[in-house]
Amino acid sequence: MGVRGIRGAITVEQDRKEEVVAATKELLEEMVQRNDVQPDDIASILITTTEDVKSTFPAQAARLLEGWQYVPLMCAREIPVPGSLPSCIRVMMHVNSEKSADQINHVFLREAIKLRPDLVNRD
Protein backbone atom coordinates (compact mmCIF):
# COMPACT_ATOMS: atom_id res chain seq x y z
CA MET A 1 0.00 0.00 0.00
CA GLY A 2 1.26 3.43 -0.92
CA VAL A 3 0.59 6.97 0.22
CA ARG A 4 -1.39 9.27 -2.08
CA GLY A 5 -2.06 12.98 -1.86
CA ILE A 6 -5.57 14.27 -2.30
CA ARG A 7 -5.81 17.97 -3.12
CA GLY A 8 -8.71 20.13 -2.17
CA ALA A 9 -9.60 23.81 -1.98
CA ILE A 10 -12.57 25.99 -1.13
CA THR A 11 -13.18 29.70 -0.78
CA VAL A 12 -15.05 31.68 1.86
CA GLU A 13 -17.00 34.88 1.37
CA GLN A 14 -16.01 36.36 4.73
CA ASP A 15 -13.24 35.68 7.21
CA ARG A 16 -15.48 34.66 10.08
CA LYS A 17 -14.64 31.73 12.36
CA GLU A 18 -17.98 30.00 11.74
CA GLU A 19 -17.65 30.30 7.96
CA VAL A 20 -14.02 29.14 7.86
CA VAL A 21 -14.80 26.08 10.00
CA ALA A 22 -17.98 25.23 8.05
CA ALA A 23 -16.24 25.57 4.67
CA THR A 24 -13.28 23.46 5.78
CA LYS A 25 -15.60 20.79 7.16
CA GLU A 26 -17.54 20.75 3.89
CA LEU A 27 -14.32 20.35 1.92
CA LEU A 28 -12.91 17.57 4.12
CA GLU A 29 -16.19 15.64 4.03
CA GLU A 30 -16.34 15.90 0.24
CA MET A 31 -12.72 14.79 -0.13
CA VAL A 32 -13.20 11.64 1.95
CA GLN A 33 -16.57 10.84 0.38
CA ARG A 34 -15.32 11.11 -3.22
CA ASN A 35 -12.28 8.98 -2.42
CA ASP A 36 -13.85 6.45 -0.02
CA VAL A 37 -11.39 7.39 2.74
CA GLN A 38 -11.77 6.32 6.36
CA PRO A 39 -10.14 8.26 9.23
CA ASP A 40 -7.61 5.45 9.80
CA ASP A 41 -6.51 5.78 6.15
CA ILE A 42 -5.34 9.38 6.70
CA ALA A 43 -1.62 9.72 7.38
CA SER A 44 -1.70 13.52 7.77
CA ILE A 45 -3.35 16.70 6.54
CA LEU A 46 -1.76 20.04 5.72
CA ILE A 47 -4.18 22.97 5.53
CA THR A 48 -3.16 26.37 4.22
CA THR A 49 -4.99 29.67 3.97
CA THR A 50 -4.43 32.85 2.03
CA GLU A 51 -3.33 35.90 4.06
CA ASP A 52 -6.89 37.21 4.31
CA VAL A 53 -8.16 34.12 6.17
CA LYS A 54 -6.98 34.49 9.75
CA SER A 55 -10.02 34.37 12.05
CA THR A 56 -9.36 30.79 13.18
CA PHE A 57 -7.42 27.60 12.49
CA PRO A 58 -9.31 25.73 9.76
CA ALA A 59 -8.06 22.45 11.23
CA GLN A 60 -10.66 22.90 13.96
CA ALA A 61 -13.18 21.59 11.41
CA ALA A 62 -11.57 18.15 11.45
CA ARG A 63 -12.21 17.86 15.17
CA LEU A 64 -15.95 18.02 14.41
CA LEU A 65 -15.74 14.85 12.31
CA GLU A 66 -16.34 11.49 13.93
CA GLY A 67 -13.19 9.38 14.32
CA TRP A 68 -10.77 12.15 13.40
CA GLN A 69 -9.32 12.77 16.90
CA TYR A 70 -6.01 11.09 15.99
CA VAL A 71 -5.56 12.54 12.49
CA PRO A 72 -2.36 14.66 12.44
CA LEU A 73 -3.17 18.18 11.23
CA MET A 74 -1.13 21.28 10.52
CA CYS A 75 -2.12 24.75 9.37
CA ALA A 76 0.12 27.12 7.43
CA ARG A 77 -0.03 30.29 5.37
CA GLU A 78 -0.01 30.26 1.56
CA ILE A 79 2.67 32.20 -0.29
CA PRO A 80 1.11 35.64 -1.05
CA VAL A 81 1.55 35.58 -4.83
CA PRO A 82 0.18 38.78 -6.42
CA GLY A 83 -3.06 38.09 -8.27
CA SER A 84 -3.67 34.71 -6.63
CA LEU A 85 -7.13 33.57 -5.57
CA PRO A 86 -8.15 35.32 -2.32
CA SER A 87 -10.10 33.92 0.64
CA CYS A 88 -8.96 30.40 -0.10
CA ILE A 89 -8.43 27.35 2.10
CA ARG A 90 -6.32 24.58 0.56
CA VAL A 91 -5.93 21.03 1.82
CA MET A 92 -3.34 18.36 1.07
CA MET A 93 -4.58 15.10 2.56
CA HIS A 94 -2.07 12.24 2.63
CA VAL A 95 -3.83 8.86 2.64
CA ASN A 96 -2.74 5.25 2.68
CA SER A 97 -4.33 3.82 -0.44
CA GLU A 98 -4.17 1.08 -3.05
CA LYS A 99 -5.48 3.54 -5.66
CA SER A 100 -3.29 4.76 -8.50
CA ALA A 101 -2.71 8.50 -8.88
CA ASP A 102 -5.24 8.76 -11.71
CA GLN A 103 -7.95 7.20 -9.51
CA ILE A 104 -7.71 9.98 -6.92
CA ASN A 105 -10.55 12.52 -7.01
CA HIS A 106 -9.28 15.97 -6.11
CA VAL A 107 -11.93 18.40 -4.86
CA PHE A 108 -12.20 22.08 -5.71
CA LEU A 109 -15.32 23.90 -4.53
CA ARG A 110 -16.78 27.38 -5.04
CA GLU A 111 -14.31 29.84 -6.57
CA ALA A 112 -11.44 27.39 -5.98
CA ILE A 113 -12.54 25.53 -9.13
CA LYS A 114 -10.42 28.14 -10.93
CA LEU A 115 -7.25 26.69 -9.39
CA ARG A 116 -7.36 23.36 -11.25
CA PRO A 117 -10.21 23.18 -13.75
CA ASP A 118 -8.46 20.19 -15.33
CA LEU A 119 -9.08 18.14 -12.16
CA VAL A 120 -12.72 19.14 -11.63
CA ASN A 121 -15.58 16.76 -12.52
CA ARG A 122 -13.40 13.81 -13.52
CA ASP A 123 -15.79 11.28 -11.96
What would a concise description of this structure say?
Helices cover 15% and strands 28% of the residues. With 123 residues, the chain is of the alpha/beta class. The chain has a single domain (2-119), classed as 60s Ribosomal Protein L30, Chain: A (2-Layer Sandwich), CATH 3.30.1330.
* Level-1 CATH class name: Alpha Beta
Computed Rg? 14 Å
What is the quaternary state of this protein? Answer: single chain
Q: CATH superfamily, called what?
A: RutC-like
User: What is the N-to-C order of secondary-structure elements (H for helix, E for strand)?
Assistant: EHEEEE
Low-confidence stretches: none
Number of helices: 1
CATH architecture group name: 2-Layer Sandwich
Q: Which fold name is given in CATH as the topology?
A: 60s Ribosomal Protein L30, Chain: A
Number of domains: 1
Query: Order of strands in the sheet with the most strands?
Result: 3-2-4-1-5
State which percent range the strand residues make up: 25-35%
Q: Assign the structural class, choosing from mainly alpha, mainly beta, alpha/beta, alpha+beta, or little secondary structure.
A: alpha/beta
Shape verdict: globular
How would you state the average pLDDT, rounded?
93
Helix content: 10-25%
Instruction: Report the end-to-end length measured between terminal Cα atoms.
Output: 23 Å
State the major sheet: 5 strands, mixed
How many strands appear in the DSSP assignment? 5
Protein name: chorismate mutase
Catalytic activity: chorismate = prephenate
GO molecular function, one term: chorismate mutase activity
InterPro entries: Chorismate_mutase_AroH, RutC-like_sf
